[in-house]
Amino acid sequence: MARPKALIAWSSGKDSAWALHEVRRAAELDVVGAITTVTDSFKRVSIHGLREQLLMAQLDAAELPATVVRIPYPCPNEVYEREMAAAMTKAKADGITHVVFGDLFLADVRAYRERNLARVGMTPVFPLWHRPTAALAREMIAAGVDARLVCVDLKKLPKSFAGRRFDEALLADFPPAVDPCGENGEFHSFVAAGPMLKRAVPVAIGETVERDGFAYADLLPG
Predict the structure, then answer these.
(1) 139/47 same-domain check
(2) CA pair distance 102, 59, nearest whole angstrom
(3) CA dist., res. 184 & res. 175, Å (int)
(4) Which of 60, 92, 125 is the last residue in one of the domains?
(5) Domain that holds residue 78
(6) What's phi and psi for 89, nearest 5 deg?
(7) Which residue ranges of the chain lie beneath pLDDT 70?
(8) Which SS3 state, helix, strand or coil, does residue 194 take?
(9) For residues 62 and 20, what is the distance between their CA atoms, to the nearest angstrom?
């Protein structure tokens, strides 16, 4: 019997990457592609600030066809929801019934995703839901996930954290109020290697810039 087809909501960061790894290990869904929002004027992954070129290299290494949802900057929520709904409607017409998310514990975010997918008749999947984040972070690191912090919220972390590797030393340096997986928006990451990728994506660390209260480490193709 054929497995249900799924998209993964792909941010380029560690949580969506690990969600892909978990779903592939469970083998209950056939993940046939990734959906990512890109801010069109910058040609960068929305919120993360990652170059689209690196996103495409990463998805190629993950063997995932890309669905890119292009949004403006700034992007009103109604525009975001309209563009996402159009992409999901097309996916459903192509036989895709499920969407996988890497959310960990924010109930309001989960409810928002559930409401929006219900409108197009698709099923959300949350394989990491309520996993203890300190243990999950260390599980990722132990499994060989090589991630870099591409964006940090300057209200919660200093600029110097942008560009750092996601490793045990980083976890030890986090202030006590920072979630080890950054689930409260403290930071966002890019996965350059790990068990969900067939090969590593070489990257170099460019300059760090501040904008709108965030510090962005500009990753460059290595």
Answers:
(1) no
(2) 16
(3) 13
(4) 125
(5) 5-125
(6) -60, -40
(7) none
(8) coil
(9) 9
What total number of domains does the chain contain? 2
How far, CA to CA in Å, does 179 sit from each of 100, 159, 172, 175, 185?
Answer: 22, 17, 12, 9, 9
What residues have CB less than 8 Å from 207, skipping those under 6 apart?
Answer: 218
- Residue 95 and residue 147 share a domain: no
> Helix H segments across the chain?
14-26, 52-61, 77-93, 107-120, 133-142, 168-173
C-alpha to C-alpha distance for 41 and 43, rounded to whole angstroms? 6
Question: Are 111 and 173 within one domain?
Answer: no
Q: What is the CA radius of gyration of the chain?
A: 17
| Cβ atoms within 10 Å of 162's Cβ, excluding its own | 26
Distance, CA of 17 to CA of 25 (rounded, Å) = 13
Q: In 3-state terms, what secondary structure has residue 92?
A: helix
Cβ contact 194:144 at 8 Å: yes
User: Would you give the distance in Å from CA 143 to the centre of its chain?
Assistant: 18
pLDDT tens per residue, range 152-197: 999 999 999 999 999 999 999 999 999 999 999 999 999 999 999 9
68/42 same-domain check: yes
- Entry pTM: 0.97
Query: What local confidence, expressed as pLDDT, does residue 1 receive?
Result: 81
Q: Give per-residue pLDDT as tens, 167-176.
A: 999 999 999 9
Question: Do residues 90 and 179 share a domain?
Answer: no
pLDDT at 69: 98
